[in-house]
Specification:
It is built from 28 helices and 22 strands. The strands form 5 sheets. Strands 11, 13, 14, 15, 16, 17 and 21 form a 7-stranded antiparallel sheet that branches. A 6-stranded antiparallel sheet has the order 8-22-12-18-19-20. The chain has a 5-stranded mixed sheet with strand order 4-3-5-7-6. By secondary structure, the protein is of the alpha+beta class.
């Protein structure tokens, strides 16, 4: 809950939620790409309790959504079997959610609200399977869930539709209604939300924007010209790319093999087993042909994968339809698993983008398939009348039941053992970016800014909202030409209507993905550049960003101090936040590593930092000792009770400064002047200590580390705003 940004979507969604407090009409206020309003509005809920939406509250909402998904799955299974077996059936879903560690899986991602919607769709579909005579309310509810899925994330719609189709087909199979009747009820359920949306768009004057930015843009987003055959190898590796989902899917496959072997033994030579025999003979012929007639058999592995891709669903479908499905609810649950899995794989593959959080859509179909196999094996041992009150007698199916429980106890244990405690024990003092305070100082409360780049941190840290609907520049550069033109024109129109007080050019180290100034600068667009230069003045360069202040405000802000930046003659300097870049996110870090440097004869170290809370003993603000106990280099550290000291290595011993009292949550300016044997420590306008050493400090080959000691030990709790080393002799 208290970690830095885990994915750029987090800050973008939160920035959108903040903006909606100013203008609640989603398509007039913000644009979140493939995520619609149903994904963003829940982030506003903490305001009911007086809290501003932030990373912690959004992740807590995500956890609540995960618990809701598991509960809905349990309630659905309890409609078909005993409550005991239903509790065992939810074990895979609970285990999967419990051990997520990958950043893409644990942040508030674009799939969490849609996942609850598809779990709810599964629940209402099972309600039809359990009591088809009362199909109207569940089918109407499935209809209502469809536009909710559409306006959360379009990828979830196929799964909801699959659940509705299976439910309607079961009604038809049991002769309780015609397909036309169930279809009419389903369509009626979609109308209230669709009608409400049309009214809101027409009143807000954003119908055209909705069509272009949500319908057309999302449709073009998936058009990469990829083909299934070409994508398949990478797609299969993608499915098992994260350790949590890998063990989850492998456990599912293990139980599926056990189930298939068990069913084959019982079914003898029925069509499903004959299919496997025929396929085995066919594979043998093809393999021998490729091996003996051709020297190049590199495509053999892909051939086997494609064969499995088509054979497995065919086998399952044949297994289900042997002697017809009839009205057996468990058989229909198997068909629902197959339909849900097909819909999920289609939704994951269709965008042709291998984002790990898409894999969350696999959880429901895999869990349905596992529940189906569990019920097929253990349902004969369930005794009693009504599903929720029936009891499980461990006589039949007990071997499969125990295999199921054992494997899904081992799965989370194995994943948990492989996780690093470092991810959970290091609670950072603040996730606020350093530019936030500066932006607040040059803008008025409630004002709007614009950030040219791909970072929501700047909006969140400053407490200011975007002047336009655009929270990233993806569609300015990486879309079809007509889409790019539309977004640039809409951006300029929004900016003219609501001129931002500050235009921030964040292209560079603080922007995710868009870091190249040559490729992504705003000056390449004449209309945008002309607007910025006509209405703004270049005010400052700081924190790896450029700040342009609106001309009518510049005269009133002349007395605002500029942020501290590196001087031209500095030997070492850090005046921007540290970043950790991962495959799908960019995370700010308190720890920075600067190059090793030979200490100048007359050097000045300057530091600005803010301690947060009470420091641990030995919490290190800066250090360049290369190996422990080397008695070389310098280190500034906490000694407890809000006191700090400078430690200098003389080669054969350590020299210590007087302790310095620095209260928490107050910004401190510190300087250390090194001149031969003299070291002069100053801070906040006070002379803290004059150290007279027997000989100068001994140099070390270690890098200068800000925020910790060696190997990230003894981390500092707080924010390091600025660090600089200057050679005073050269500066003269």
């Amino acid at each position: 809950l208290l970690d830095f940004q885990l994915n750029p979507d987090e800050s973008e969604f939160l920035s959108a939620a903040h903006k909606l407090f100013y203008d609640l009409n989603f398509f007039r206020s913000v644009d979140c790409g493939t995520s619609g309003p149903v994904n963003i509005y829940p982030l506003m809920l903490p305001a009911i309790f007086g809290f501003s939406p932030d990373y912690a509250s959004s992740r807590l909402i995500g956890e609540i959504l995960d618990f809701t998904s598991v509960y809905l799955f349990y309630r659905a299974l309890a409609l078909l079997t005993s409550s005991t077996l239903a509790r065992i059936g939810v074990l895979p879903a609970a285990a999967a959610f419990a051990v997520f560690e990958h950043p893409a899986l644990i942040h508030y991602n674009s799939e969490q609200v849609p996942l609850v919607i598809v779990f709810a769709a599964f629940y209402f579909s099972v309600k039809v399977l359990s009591n088809p005579c009362n199909y109207r309310a569940p089918m109407f509810s499935l209809g209502m869930l469809t536009p909710l899925a559409f306006f959360s994330k379009m990828q979830s719609v196929p799964n909801v539709v699959a659940c509705a189709a299976v439910a309607a087909s079961y009604c038809y199979a049991t002769k309780t209604c015609r397909l036309r009747q169930s279809g009419t009820v389903y369509i009626a359920g979609t109308l209230p939300f669709l009608f409400l949306h049309v009214v809101i768009c027409l009143i807000g004057g954003v119908w055209g924007n909705f069509i272009t930015s949500y319908i057309v843009t999302n449709q073009r987003y998936t058009e990469l010209g990829s083909r299934l055959y070409q994508d398949l190898p990478a797609f299969l590796f993608f499915l098992i790319g994260t350790i949590e989902l890998r063990f989850f899917l492998f456990t599912f496959f293990a139980l599926a093999v056990i189930y298939a072997i068990t069913r084959l033994r019982r079914n003898g030579s029925e069509p499903p087993s004959l299919l496997l025999q025929y396929l085995a003979m066919s594979v043998t012929v093809v393999t021998l042909s490729l091996a003996f007639l051709f020297s190049n058999v590199s495509g053999l592995g892909l051939y086997f994968v494609l064969l499995a891709l088509f054979a497995v669903p065919s086998y399952l479908l044949l297994l289900q339809t042997t002697n017809s499905l009839g009205t057996d609810r468990i058989r229909w649950l198997g068909l629902l698993a197959l339909a849900s899995l097909s819909a999920a794989l289609y939704a994951i593959h269709k965008p042709h983008r291998l984002f790990p959080h898409y894999l969350i859509f696999l959880i429901l179909p895999v869990c349905i398939a596992l529940a189906f196999m569990l019920m097929r094996e253990c349902e004969p041992a369930v005794q009693g009348g009504q599903p929720g009150q029936r009891r499980l007698e461990l006589s039949q199916g007990s071997a499969y039941l125990f295999s199921f429980v054992i494997l899904f106890m081992v799965f989370p244990a194995q994943v948990w053992i492989g996780q690093t405690a470092q991810s959970f024990k290091n609670v950072v003092s603040t996730v606020r970016p350093p530019e936030g305070d500066y932006l607040r100082s040059i803008t008025s409360p409630g004002s709007r800014i614009f950030v040219w780049g791909w970072t929501g941190d700047t909006y969140l840290g400053s407490g200011r909202v975007s002047a336009t609907r655009d929270l990233n520049l993806f569609y300015f550069f990486l879309a079809a030409p007509e889409i790019e033109s539309y977004y640039r024109a809409r951006f300029l129109n929004d900016l003219r209507k609501n001129p931002a007080e500050v235009f921030v050019d964040a292209i560079g180290p603080t922007s995710w993905f868009m870091t190249d100034q040559k490729l992504y600068n705003f000056e390449q667009f004449p209309e945008i550049a002309a607007f910025v230069h006509a209405n703004y003045v270049h005010w400052a360069n700081a924190f790896g960003q450029r700040y342009f202040l609106r001309r009518d405000l510049a005269a009133r802000k002349l007395d605002t101090p500029l942020p501290r930046t590196c001087t031209a003659g500095s030997v070492l300097c850090a005046d921007r936040p540290a970043l950790i870049t991962t495959s799908d996110a960019m995370v700010r870090s308190a720890i920075q590593k600067l190059p090793a440097i030979q200490m100048p004869g007359h050097a000045l170290l300057e530091l600005e930092f803010t301690p947060m809370a009470q420091q641990v003993v030995n919490g290190t603000i800066f250090n360049n000792e290369a190996v422990p106990a080397s008695t070389r280099g310098f280190r500034f550290q906490s000694i407890g009770a809000d006191r700090y000291r400078l430690i200098l290595g003389l080669g054969d011993r350590w020299a210590f400064s007087k302790s310095i009292l620095l209260p928490p949550s107050r910004r401190t300016s510190l300087s250390s002047e090194f001149k031969g044997k003299g070291v002069y420590l100053r801070g906040n306008g006070l002379a803290f200590d004059d150290m007279h050493l027997p000989y100068p400090m001994a140099d070390t080959p270690g890098p200068v580390i800000l925020g910790s000691w060696i190997n990230d030990y003894d981390p500092f709790t707080g924010t390091i705003h600025f660090f600089q080393m200057t050679d005073l002799d050269k500066a003269k």
